[in-house]
Design brief:
alpha+beta; Endonuclease, Chain A
């Protein structure tokens, strides 16, 4: 079991507040505060939930209260804030790696616009300033192209569209799940998986067609 010192150190590495950890673990902020402050040992279930939440976020725990980032990192973002944080990560990753393109598949832009809200214009302008080109695969017959000023759209072959989009940017790949209440975004910092998704995307891109706009 991890110690209270490791919990505090892990939050510092992730730049998380106690609220962030509460959202990731399902343990209340009040309980996390008591555990970190030494006022409560916490139940085994609570400690395990906290450890699970931090592990999913890319933290590894070792002996003697040691804490480090995992070599292969998975980050989970949720809700409106998580969705906006995801676009910050896209911008920062592309800027850092100098990536010239971003690839997105299985896109229903209505859902993206719904959660991106007023950030949409700002994000499109700064990505254009970086010179980044977007390739976006959408369902055959869809004619909604809100990012057409900086993105190229193609219709996926009929029968290949799936409801879970994936987003390739820099050295990362992300899967986005939209439900009735909030989006969930799983960001993987794993170059081999990113390269696999890139290869799959490029293969599908070649099979896709330019939209017919009337």
């Amino acid at each position: 079991m991890i110690t209270r010192y490791q919990i505090t150190a892990a939050r510092a590495l992730l730049e998380w507040t106690q609220d962030d950890l509460a959202n990731a673990s399902g343990v209340s902020k009040d309980m996390i505060s008591k555990i970190e402050g030494g006022k409560s040992a916490g139940s085994l279930k609570s400690i395990q939930s906290i450890e699970d939440g931090l592990t999913v976020a890319g933290i590894e725990f070792g002996e003697n209260d040691s804490v480090k980032r995992s070599a292969s990192q998975i980050r989970v973002l949720k809700g409106q804030k998580g969705f906006l944080d995801f676009y910050e990560d896209v911008f920062e990753e592309v800027q850092k790696t100098g990536a010239t393109s971003v690839s997105v598949s299985n896109v229903d832009e209505r859902k993206f616009v719904q959660w991106q809200c007023e950030q949409l214009k700002e994000h499109s302008e700064r990505m254009r300033a970086l010179g980044t080109k977007y390739k976006i695969l959408i369902q055959h017959g869809d004619t909604y192209f809100p990012a057409s000023n900086y993105a190229e759209y193609r219709w996926m072959p009929e029968g290949t569209f799936y409801s879970v989009p994936f987003y390739i940017y820099g050295k990362k790949v992300a899967m986005l799940i939209f439900d009735e209440h909030e989006p969930r975004i799983y960001v993987l910092s794993e170059p081999e998986l990113t390269n696999l998704y890139k290869a799959q995307f490029e293969s599908l891109w070649k099979q896709s067609s330019e939209p017919e706009v009337k």
